[in-house]
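Exercise 7. Predict the joint structure of the components listed below.
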Amino acid sequence: MAEKMELKEVEVWDGNYAASQALRQAQVDVVSAYPITPSTPIVENYGAYVANGYVDGEFVMVESEHAAMSGCVGAAAAGGRVATATSSQGFALMVEVLYQASGMRLPIVMTVVNRALASPLNVRGDHGDMYLGRDSGWVQIDAFNAQEAYDLTLCAFKIGEDMRVRLPVMMHQDGFLTSHTAQNVHPLSDDEAYKFVGDYKPYEEMLDFTKPVTYGAQTEEDWHYEHKARQHKALMESKDVIDEVFAEFKKLTGREYKRVESYMMDDAEVAIVALGTTVETARVAADQLREEGIKAGVVAPRCFRPFPFDEMRDALENTKAIAVLDRSAPMGAMGALFNEVSAALYTTPNRPLVTNFIYGLGGRDFSVEEAKRIFKEQKAHADAGHITTPIQQFSGVRGPKLGFFETKRGN
Amino acid sequence: MSRGVLATEKRGIRELGAEEFVGWDEVTHGVILPSFEGELKENVSHIRPEERDYSDFNSYTATVASWRVIKPVYNRDICIDCQNCWVWCPDTSIISRDKQMLGIDYDHCKGCGVCVEVCPTNPKSLLMFGEAEEIEDALAKWPEKKKKAK
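Solution:
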């Protein structure tokens, strides 16, 4: 039996430490990892918990992130509760195996500390790696601070391991801004946390010798499509389980999570849609603008995959102008979040005005002042009745203004 | 070959890819495929292949004979039962019982020729022939023992 850890009612943890404590309390059987900045402390701490007797598990050191995720696939197929952590280049090297894990329906939990993708090399946070995973078949949940990183990592196990889901789950947090910023965190006791997550239930595990199974079979055009269709359905329907798990978590802790988080949206005329720590920045900006009489609100997809299409539409359809913020280099297109939010809003009768801001690449600071400027620009669109700027703009980049694509509405 | 050592003799075999096609709602979870029907009551390595209740997902119940253009032919009169071919065959298509070589499982052999390559006898006890060649004709053409060069 693992040693229990005495935790105070309020601990001062950064996002990495919070995530590692959740891994410990879930009593993860195997962590197979190749540490990378800024997610290193998550697996480093898990290794220390194993060494000091606080978790009955194995820390497997491997030679690359590709091997790390492969180790996770093997351990999960064998029948264990499995987790790992990565960022950026490490995430990119894992990509091939991410698709294997989801295709084999293995409920691995990966804590991803978001970091920019090279080149140029950069250890700071943006969402390039999170976006790289968006077609990989994993559930993707985003935490905006350390408390959420802790809470949602516990929830991640319960979501992925539910027999109706059985899919891997990524738990995202922003590199450095969340991962290395110490904040007050209210943890559960070890017993409460483990009771919430529950015992791991193996399913079709390879170590059941009474029922030998093959994982990773080859299919061609005659079977591949049906398997992918079934997998997509499982991911789409995981939303009900996510809602159930969030409801159960609220009952236990009083802390409420939703697949789309809305802030002051009841009467909002203008809105910012964003992910990660930027959500909190935008909320502060909205508070300040409310004092100036601008009805500002903030909407954030807590759940990036499955994409909450209906809830996003419901949250935004009564606004007039919306700025969707993408913290990832779009490289030849509109930002991914802009595209998905726009698609949801296209199905509404009013079709609010939607513009796209690229911002914060490679950890470039995004200030409350800039969020307020963007809100005010939305107010100008709303008053004019059409978009008065290029549809895609770059926020916070040095040099001449950069913008792409013009609206045809209002001309 | 003595009868009854091939699963196909008991339950029949189908061409690989000729299975029944089902919709997305009926495919297995995670493409996880069971090797056997139901649960095993004893260690499967103690059960002979022909007596195992292989599932339809197991390659054992599907033939790939049509992939082959040349085939190995086995000559019992020369074989010393060294088991080299049984060890090296990449498709477990050499049938051996109680360390005695019985023959080739032509339902699963792909004609790679590894068995011929590793056969140590002189002449070889396994030789490759065209797929259409009759076994009797092949055996009639078997080469003589080669003399060692002085």
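Discussion. The interface with chain A takes residues 17, 21-25, 27, 29-36, 39-41, 43-44, 57 of chain B (CB under 8 Å).
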